[in-house]
């Protein structure tokens, strides 16, 4: 791997014990702000601040690797710092952000990009954090994300918010993420320990580099190493 900064965050599995909150996922940074894991997310936030990235894309190699949970918690710690944050669910194939924050998904990114509805941004129960849900699943997500309407939306959000986080589909599954990766300031890859295949991650990085994406680093979850308390920070 050839990027300069490699940021890794790890869940302490025995400590979390698969508990979830009423929003359908584990928003540890909101429910347990003084926990070790919440502190790890804050460390990731600090590391990303040094990159000066204004728009950040979160992706993974395949589904069910925790990218939406990471996106949500990262958005929360940024909002807790006092930043005005918007989390955008760009996974219009298997969306989850609306469920995580218990929001209406009858309108959102898909209806805005297809010009069916101009309503877009929703407030959350967390101060400083707004969300753009995916909206109903469209027949052509890739075309919508590649549209000029999406370019206009990114510019609009950049003017309105301090930080914009895009939760996207896995890189190796569809072209959606590659389309968006070149439009944002930086990309962060979620890699689950003992799940992600090295070859697949290398393929993911290669695909992102093809579109000239700026890879900021990676967040590793499902880490169970007790020696380092589930947190690692590497320089390559």
Automatic annotation (TrEMBL):
<keyword id="KW-0808">Transferase</keyword>
<protein>
    <recommendedName>
        <fullName>non-specific protein-tyrosine kinase</fullName>
        <ecNumber>2.7.10.2</ecNumber>
    </recommendedName>
</protein>
<dbReference type="Pfam" id="PF10609">
    <property type="entry name" value="ParA"/>
</dbReference>
<keyword id="KW-0547">Nucleotide-binding</keyword>
<dbReference type="GO" id="GO:0004715">
    <property type="term" value="F:non-membrane spanning protein tyrosine kinase activity"/>
</dbReference>
<dbReference type="InterPro" id="IPR033756">
    <property type="entry name" value="YlxH/NBP35"/>
</dbReference>
<dbReference type="GO" id="GO:0005524">
    <property type="term" value="F:ATP binding"/>
</dbReference>
<dbReference type="InterPro" id="IPR027417">
    <property type="entry name" value="P-loop_NTPase"/>
</dbReference>
<comment type="pathway">
    <text>Capsule biogenesis; capsule polysaccharide biosynthesis.</text>
</comment>
<dbReference type="GO" id="GO:0005886">
    <property type="term" value="C:plasma membrane"/>
</dbReference>
<keyword id="KW-0972">Capsule biogenesis/degradation</keyword>
<dbReference type="InterPro" id="IPR005702">
    <property type="entry name" value="Wzc-like_C"/>
</dbReference>
<dbReference type="GO" id="GO:0042802">
    <property type="term" value="F:identical protein binding"/>
</dbReference>
<dbReference type="InterPro" id="IPR050445">
    <property type="entry name" value="Bact_polysacc_biosynth/exp"/>
</dbReference>
<comment type="similarity">
    <text>Belongs to the CpsD/CapB family.</text>
</comment>
<dbReference type="GO" id="GO:0000271">
    <property type="term" value="P:polysaccharide biosynthetic process"/>
</dbReference>
<keyword id="KW-0829">Tyrosine-protein kinase</keyword>
<keyword id="KW-0067">ATP-binding</keyword>
<keyword id="KW-0418">Kinase</keyword>
<keyword id="KW-0270">Exopolysaccharide synthesis</keyword>
